[in-house]
Amino acid sequence: MEGYKSFLFFLVSSLVLGFTLVIFALVWVLHYSDGLAWDGGNAEFNWHPVLIITGFIFIEGIAIIVYRLPWTWKCSKLLMKCIHAGLHLTATVLVVVALVAVWDYHNARNIPNMYSLHSWVGLTVVILFFLQLVSSIVVYLLPFTPVSIRAALMPIHVYSGLLLFGGVIATSLMGITEKKNPPYSSFPPHGIFVNTLGLLIVVFGGLILWITTRPGWKRPPEHVEKDQHPFGSSADEDTTDYSKEKSDVELNSEARKRNLKLDEAGQRSTM
């Protein structure tokens, strides 16, 4: 892998920042709001930002970069596909619960649904994400799709995934500042904390996109994965090369023995 130390820096930074986002979301609802519950009140609504940040931002970000981890390059491609799809499915479950929470909260308070730009963009992203997930499972996880079709659709799959992740970041930023009580103009601690959370989301998204778009950090094709191992030649490769050399020596030794036997037999025939 090119720039292995740089990759580690960005990877560790993204993981630390992702966990920080989840902690910030919990502090936001537990300290500055009414906590978490399922009672139709503010505490039920609070599940929405917590689950969106945990599932649609943090877990989804990890799902995007899981193929970039060089320690997984010797794992089977099928295993990595299952892990990739499993992370997406986990994010989907959390997002569905988050949507149910906000819908139930609005209905309990007689608040109209789907009235804001945040809700319009958010629902669009969720629908497109679900369609992307279903189509990807059909094309890349089930065995009956021809390889040529998979290869042709791969650029679209990658682009749409990154586009949807960017849409999630934008939607989250719109939702964070939707409630403005107390007014932000008075610089309340709550407002400062939420603004900081928004900046951290942007930085996390930037780190994920940077890791994903570096050509040197891309998972190599199956036939060159061993050569691209970040720690150089593996023990298995060294053993394989040694066995090849050993087999050549044994073949040469057996050939010499056969020649000696033929020479001895010739000498006996002439004696």
The biggest sheet, with number of strands, parallel, antiparallel or mixed sense and barrel status, is: none
- Strands, count: 0
Number of helical elements: 8
**H and E order:** HHHHHHHH
Q: What overall geometry do the principal axes of the alpha carbons give?
A: globular
Low-pLDDT runs of 5+ residues are 223-251, 262-271
Percentage of residues in strands: under 5%
The overall average pLDDT, rounded, is 83
Radius of gyration: 28 Å
Termini separation = 67 Å
Amount of helix: over 70%
Q: Structural class of the secondary structure composition? A: mainly alpha
3D structure, described in words:
The chain has 271 residues and is mostly helical. The chain is built from eight helices and no strands. It has helices spanning 4-31, 42-45, 47-65, 77-109, 117-141, 147-176, 189-213, 235-270. Helix 1 (4-31) packs antiparallel against helix 7, helix 3 runs parallel beside helix 7 (189-213) and helix 4 runs antiparallel to helix 5.
Write the layout of secondary structure elements.
Elements: H1 4-31, H2 42-45, H3 47-65, H4 77-109, H5 117-141, H6 147-176, H7 189-213, H8 235-270
Question: What's the gist of this structure?
Answer:
It is built from 8 helices and no strands. It has helices spanning about 5-30, 40-45, 45-65, 75-110, 115-140, 145-175, 190-215, 235-270.
